[in-house]
């Protein structure tokens, strides 16, 4: 990372509020480039975005598709599954942000940022920008694999793009949750362990893999308030048709609420640690 890329008007790191918008955007761009260079140097870090969508779609379509839709009707389940996997993919990618932030502290990377005249929030926002890029790559691979297996869209390409955008917006809000975990816990393994405890009930207690009408009454009630169910249903209706307004607005409401609560906490925690 060049020194010029991180140069700001004469100001001390402690007074990041005085850093102008243009300088802040320049810092975010430079830090995002640094994160992308890290990925280039370690291509294995892209496995979760490149390989996992393929594994998930093949595994769930051909292992559970016959049971859910009947043998020989796996394609029907594929059309139900892919929009739900878009929702799940966002959570899985978001988890990597928390482990990455925690690992940067362990390696002393944040000590370097402490001495630079940059906004503390720009470090976190740059990570989110790069992870959104990884999320888009994972979604593109998921959809490409889906179309290769017979996925059909009964609406329009604009509706499909809207479903992708909605998944990205919600996934970006979850990144603040995992950043907060990464800043609060001691090791990347602890972040991953706590994240899985949160992810598993939310993913499988939702409409991602199965219609909620087939679930027990108490679980069906939980899925109605599960934000992943709202996101999966919204993406499904955008891609396949159906009443979409309620699910979309609920998903956006969840995304805004999560961001408003966790983003200030994450930035405050990051300032204290740096």
Averaged pLDDT? 83
| Shape category | elongated
Query: How many strands appear in the DSSP assignment?
Result: 0
Q: Per DSSP, what share of the residues sits in E-state strands of 2 or more residues?
A: under 5%
Succession of helices and strands: HHHHHHHHHHH
The secondary structure category is mainly alpha
Give the biggest beta sheet. Answer: none
For the termini, the CA-CA separation is: 19 Å
Please, how many helices?
Answer: 11
Q: Give the proportion of residues in helices.
A: over 70%
Given as residue ranges, the uncertain stretches (5+ residues, pLDDT < 50) are 1-17
Q: Report the radius of gyration as a whole number of Å.
A: 20 Å
Short structural description:
This protein has 274 residues and is an all-alpha fold. The chain has helices at residues 21-41, 47-50, 52-69, 74-107, 109-114, 120-149, 157-184, 188-204, 217-225, 227-240, 245-273.
Describe, in plain words, how this protein is organized in 3D.
It is a multi-pass membrane protein. It holds the Pfam family ABC2_membrane. Belongs to the ABC-2 integral membrane protein family. InterPro entries: ABC2_TM, ABC2_TM_bact-type, ABC_2_transport, Nod_factor_ABC_transporter. It is a single chain. The protein has 274 residues and is mostly helical. It contains eleven helices and no strands. Helix 1 crosses helix 6 and helix 4 runs parallel beside helix 7. The chain is elongated and about 60 Å long. The chain starts with 20 loop residues before the first helix and ends with a helix.
